[in-house]
Amino acid sequence: MGINIRHIKATQRTALRSAFGILLLVALGLVGSSTLTSCHKRLALTIVEVEDSVRHYPSVVLGDELTMVYVLRNTGDEMLVITDIQPACPTIESAAENVTTIPPGEEVPMKFVYHADKNIGLARHSIRLYGNIAPKGVAELVFDTHVVRPSIDLSDHEEYHQKVLRSVGEHLLDGRYSEKGYYTDDHPSREEE
User: Fold this and answer.
1) 25, 104, 140, 185: which has the fewest Cβ within 10 Å?
2) Which one has a higher pLDDT value, 58 or 29?
3) What is the 3-state secondary structure (H, E, C) of the chain?
């Protein structure tokens, strides 16, 4: 039985290639784990409070705009990151200056404009804020108003009210019902006052 030198050299080359391949894979795995992958940190959920998240605004005249300011408070221990703002309809505009991060313990105003130029009657809409908001990752802002037709001859109550609000600048965030420009479901009824 003779020793085949070609066979031995072929076996050595195959073993050398396999060893080199394994070393290459290990090296790539070590390099890849440090440079090709990222550390993906998930944000913990945080608690958000919204001042008067459900609002009822007085009637607006068709073609007018309704400016709304919601105050968001991050009462949790983590940074609040708002990843998406989704109005329920295209007639609601989110202000460009709205922030997307709120540190713990801070509050920020979120401004939205409703363009009442499409339909007449009751307009009830919502705005959803998505992010690391406890418990389900979403906060919902709800508002409604009645859109009325402009009168042709005489100013009616809604037109007079809107004109007075514009001239006085009575768009305040806190105070009594008449100062806020809206009311909520938990306001006292007229019989209780």
Assistant:
1) 185
2) 58
3) CCCCHHHHHHHHHHHHHHHHHHHHHHHHHHHHHHHHCCCCCCCCCECEEECCCEEECCCEECCCEEEEEEEEEECCCCCEEEEEEEECCCCEEECCCCCCEECCCCEEEEEEEEECCCCCEEEEEEEEEEECECCCCEEEEEEEEEEECCCCCCCCHHHHHHHHHHHHCCCCCCCCHHHHCCECCCCCCCCCC
Whether 11 has a pLDDT exceeding 70, the answer reads no
Tokens of 125: 């809409």
Locus of tokens 């790539």? 28
| Residues composing the chain | 193
Q: What angle do CA 86, 87, 88 make, to 5 degrees?
A: 115
Which pLDDT does position 139 carry in this prediction?
95
φ and ψ of 82, to 5 deg: -90, 115
| pLDDT classification of 154: cutoffs 50, 70, 90 | low
